[in-house]
Amino acid sequence: MEHHWKELIPVDRYTVRSNGVLHDFDRTVLTLLYQPLIGYRALSLYMTLWSELELLSEKETTHHSLMVLMQCSLKEIYEERLKLEGIGLLKTYVNKEEPKLFIYELQPPLTPEQFFTDGMLNVFLYNRIGKHKFRQLKQFFSTPSIDRTKFSPVTRAFHDVFASVHVEQMVAKMNEETQEDLRLVDGYEYIGRKENTYDLSDDVFDFELFFAGLSKYMVPKRAITPKVKEAIKKLAFLYGVGPLDMQKIVMSVIDPSDHIDIDALRKAVHEWYEFERGGAPPNLSSRVQPLPYRTMTNVEPKTKEELLMKQLETISPRQLLIEISGGAEPSMSDLRLIEDIMFQQQLLPGVVNVLIYYAMLRTDMKLSKAYVEKIASHWSRKNVKTVKEAMELAKKEAKMYQSWAKEKSKRTSRKAVRKELLPEWLNMDYSQNDDQDKDENINIEEKRRELEERLKKYRDE
Questions:
Q1: pLDDT band at 93; cut points 50, 70, 90
Q2: Confidence of residue 377 (pLDDT cuts 50, 70, 90)
Q3: Half-sphere exposure of residue 84, counting CA atoms within 13 Å on the CB side?
Q4: For the chain, what are the domain ranges?
Q5: Cβ–Cβ contacts within 10 Å for residue 254, how many?
Q6: Which comes out higher in pLDDT, residue 141 or 304?
Q7: Is the pLDDT of residue 85 over 60?
Q8: Of the given ranges (24-33, 199-208, 421-430), which has the lowest mean pLDDT?
Q9: pLDDT, position 103
Q10: Cα gap 30→38, rounded to integer Å
Q11: In the 3-class helix/strand/coil scheme, how is the chain assigned residue by residue?
Q12: Cα–Cα distance between 201 and 238 in angstroms, integer?
């Protein structure tokens, strides 16, 4: 990821438009269903842009005015914008001129029915707000159904109400000028409301391995329709189902006509999850690095760095936090932070493990929310998928991360900022000659050994 100021600066201009008409009811959906997932800051940015939709009326203004309006920094606006993009509430376009011009196209939220039957967002909401509140919201966004079998339809058709026009009369009036009036002027498009969704990359699931296995069972590829494929992606991402297990699940629900019922697929995946995980609600922090993104499988570690890589590929972020804390359950704030970056930044579990390990050594065995989110956003932009890539990027960008840590330290303390040191698996390319630096080096080495000791049982397995 580049620095946010490389992506946009205060003088860059923007205009706001929407993908169709936004309704007042959308505000309720955004507040009650989306806000628990994206946070109040991202919601505030969406609402502000919505208000500017009518205010600007296709006019341009600067990002500095948005900073003044929201009373926050450009960095905060940029980070919250990414959350809106990731969850499908905003599409951003930019030209290549200087200063840049951004188009922020607001996307309508999913309808309550789409949200509660999504298969992923509804489960995340359930885990975030709990059973009682989730049931309360589901009831709020539903209404008693009507048994229409007890009624007879009496609605009139169009031709029953409106008189027909003879073809001769119609052709006579349809001269060239009239036909031109019926066409939309070039460069314009009609106001409407297109169906909205959020993007989930195919990278979250190894479809190549999945299809290769299905071909052995003579399952036609046409059975995996676009809707089925999207459902597989969401279910695999949410429940941590691998391609081989998903093959078996799909085989169990496909009918003789090669049709796959998505509801049956969801139920089968849920039953698989209950059997594998004992019925605990799915959460991202309990997932482990997917096999296609492991580099140490069937490899005997030869160095401490390779040993650490193999550990971080085979342990979940939640279990890593438990081991680091000596067996104690992680705090809800730490788990929420980890799940937020995995969901919003779509970081894989192994990559998150490197981030946890790195941050723990750099911030006195604590997870600093701002620091973790900043690095997570960086890795997401760089499309980091493996533990090895994360470690190499941390090594390459060490000085930049060090400056971020110093910025945080300056904000939280008036004391002189100590020189940040790096984990052993990073390249130490700084001069450290004074006694204070040597003391810190000893301190960081002690923390590293302590982490290694707590992860020892995973080395032995």
A1: very high
A2: confident
A3: 28
A4: 4-109, 167-172+174-182+200-277, 291-408
A5: 21
A6: 141
A7: yes
A8: 421-430
A9: 93
A10: 10
A11: CCCHHHHCCCCCEEEEEECCCCCHHHHHHHHHHHHHHHCHHHHHHHHHHHHHHHHHCCCCEEHHHHHHHHCCCHHHHHHHHHHHHHCCCEEEEECCCCCCEEEEEECCCCCHHHHHCCCCHHHHHHHHHCHHHHHHHHHHCCCCCCCHHHCCCCCCCHHHHCCCCCHHHHHHHCCHHHHHHHCCCCCCCCCCCCCCCCCCCHHHCCHHHHHHHHHHCCCCHHHCCHHHHHHHHHHHHHHCCCHHHHHHHHHHHECCCCCECHHHHHHHHHHHHHHHHCCCCCCHHHCCCCHHHCCCCCCCCCCHHHHHHHHHHCCCHHHHHHHHCCCCCCCHHHHHHHHHHHHHCCCCHHHHHHHHHHHHHHCCCCCCHHHHHHHHHHHHHCCCCCHHHHHHHHHHCHHHHHHHHHHHHHHHCCCCCCCCCCCCCCCCCCCCCCHHHHHHHHHHHHHHHHHHHHCHHHHHC
A12: 13
- Give residue 109's pLDDT: 94
> How far from 359 is each of 79, 327, 329, 366, 395, CA to CA, in Å?
20, 19, 18, 7, 13
Cα 178 to Cα 16: distance, rounded to the nearest angstrom: 34
Contact between 125 and 238 under an 8 Å Cβ cutoff? The reply is no
Q: Enter the pTM of the model.
A: 0.63
Tokens of 151: 């009624």
Buried b (16+ CB within 10 A) or exposed e, 414-433: eeeeeebbbbebbeeeeeee
Q: Which two tokens stand for residue 31?
A: 């507040």
CA distances to 249, 267, 344 from 272, in Å: 8, 9, 26
Is the dihedral angle over the CA atoms 45, 46, 51, 55 positive or is it negative? positive
Per DSSP, what are the bridge partners of residue 62? 13
Q: Is 240 left (phi over 0), alpha (psi -120 to 50) or beta?
A: left
